[in-house]
Design brief:
The chain is α/β, with parallel strands linked by helices. It has a domain of 258 residues. The protein is 49% helix and 11% strand. It is built from 32 helices and 15 strands. Strand 12 and strand 13 form a beta hairpin. Helix 26 runs antiparallel to helix 29. The longest helix has 31 residues. The radius of gyration is 33 Å and the shape is globular. The protein starts with 26 loop residues before the first helix and ends with a strand.
Amino acid sequence: QLGTLSGSRRSMGSSYGSRRSGGTGSISHSFRQPAGADDPFGRAASQQGLDDDEENLRWAALEKLPTYDRMRRAVLLNHAGAGGADGHELQGLVDIEQLASGEAGRALLERVFQDDSERFLRRLRDRVDRVGIDLPAIEVRYQGLSVEVDAFVGTSALPTLWNSATNFLQSLVGRLASSNKKTINILRNVHGILKPSRMTLLLGPPSSGKSTLMRALTGKLDKTLKVSGSITYCSHTFEEFYPERTSAYVSQYDLHNAEMTVRETLDFSRRCLGVGARYDMLAELAAREREAGIKPDPEIDAYMKATAVQGQQSNIVTDLTLKVLGLDICADMPIGDEMIRGISGGQKKRVTTGEMLTGPARALFMDEISTGLDSSSTFEIVKYIRQLVHVMNETVMISLLQPPPETYNLFDDIILLSEGYIVYHGPRDNILDFFEAAGFRCPERKGVADFLQEVTSKKDQQQYWYLEQQQYRHVSVPEFAQRFKSFHVGQQMLKELQIPFDKSKTHPAALTTNKYGQSSWESIKTVLSREQLLMKRNSFIYIFKVTQLIILGLMAMTVFLRTKMPYGHISDGGKFFGALTFSLITVLFNGFAELQLTIKMLPTFYKQRDFLFFPPWTFALVTIILRIPVSLMESAVWVVLTYYVMGFAPAPARFFRQLLAFFGTHQMAMALFRFLGAVLKSMVVANTFGMFVILLIFIFGGFVIPRGDIRPWWIWAYWSSPMMYSQNAISVNEFLSSRWANTNTEASIEASTVGEAILKSKGLFTGDWGFWVSMGAILGFTILFNILYILALTHLSPPSGSNTVSDQENENETNTSTPMGEFFLTYPY
């Protein structure tokens, strides 16, 4: 674990009042005051003669409202120009919920933003500064941080069947057998401080450990990695708060729901991440303004109240994020994928960035956010983030591969990472001096960022040597790292690290101690609305499944169609038993589509789960609930089409009991395939293993091999087959009806009626109790598979990607031009 263990997470106090972990549907629930308490939203009438009379009258009208209504209102002037949903201009006392979203919210945003983000942020900061409130600030320190991984090297790392088998066996026998595993150092004893109000650029060549460093600082490292050293936020270790919510990590991978639009994607992340301490901040701000007799800017007051509204489908925060990222032109377009036409790759990267910007985190770690963006778009995004850092006191680290000079100059500090070493960490103005002291100078024609990434490379370093009087000597990365410790910037950083951060100076709202941004009930509602939307967008799949059932039903009806289906004799039971089994197989296989649907959503789910968007069980529960009406409809379509045409028992009770049996079977099959998809994670593996599971269930289902013919050592598989209980339920329902109650004349079968004789010959239950026992077993299997599905989503890790690098030691020893594919190692991070 990172940092020093210091017990369980503590509950941090707040000067803003009690911290709420769950949001409510409106701002009123968040600011409601107990009876008799001081009202922080009371407004003292301004005594200054220069105030506008009309504005004063509106503030006075706001004063007269009851506390509950006053918290739901804002004063807008005539020139605010906010339009309501009905097209009329909003002015005077306006309902906050009208301003929080929709056209009114966008009109208010246009008024306060005015295409000048810095002026907009200054207006927000000025209101806070006028009453002496300090904004939350986060200082991130890492000391002695090292990350290692054991990986297979050489040809044993090739993804072949033989290597997979041998590597698995070697892992079982452990030290008793030789192993090709090698310890790879990803980060090597690195130190540093990320300060608030300073924006840091993380530079380094590919595979230098940039993503690993960012993941380590945000608490998102893979659990298979070996981590040592300490990471603290304001001297608090990860055990004292939730780094996943205190900081926001923007991944370099764009994982989104392809069917959702850009606005819907950002709205979902905003609702899940919550509003943080905005409630308490606004209450404290209003109380101090009341005490000082200060009347706030009406537009800024309305905007801040609107951002504190939680639980709505859309919010002004989403509109602001769309605007600053340049996504407003494609806000209502789907994200898209290889099957759905959507936005461009650069716009997807901006959506990935926007997901984290909609939340309340005050420490941002952005990994390769410029991928797919042109230099102008990158500059505008980084410029806005720089304004956030300097005006709103945030802490930001951004990793860029090849930033243009104008973007590079926006940063305050630079971290240069190479081969797992930190070569430089300090102010941007001093980095060229550091390399000149080592004998390397950046040419005027060269961009500084490109120079920094090439000067540590063995093949590119010599061209930057400028000491003509001295012969060039290669300076290795470890030597650069050692030189930095003696450089004045490095010495200053080491001195600062020796002085611990004073915990008492930590802002109460800086670190998040609530695991999720919403209550469990609000999370269920948020996920439910998203999943309903996705089902609507994927309606073709469900329409196709029903159409498929109708076609198969028509085929089955014509195969088993009889003007008068013969019954009452043992010889007649074969046709009915075959028709029942065919129906059962059709319903069972119809749930197989759940396997592909589950695997398709896993990448996005894992990202949102690890970022603590919602508890995993809420997503699983919503998925299970939403599939119930789908399952009922598909089962009903099949039974309604085929039951009477095939000539099953005509009693209505028998009809509904078969419908119940098929509905339970379909639910069980969907739960089984959901569970397999969550465990296997890969479409190829899941399809192969899924068919294998179906064959096992079918073999021991009681149709291919009757119970009496199964060997004793395999009888456990018969009783473990869910299909067996479904076969029993539908067979008992049919063959114990009154038309199969004729006296049994078959002497070889000991049974009183023909129906019981047929059931006994197949090894099935022979009493009416068998139907309800089978239904209970089907229900038990359904619950079991759903519980396993929830546990798999909660605890299993996502499939880790593999980074492949050359085995440099082998190459150096042989001193030959070995192909990259001959010697390499693979490790996940």
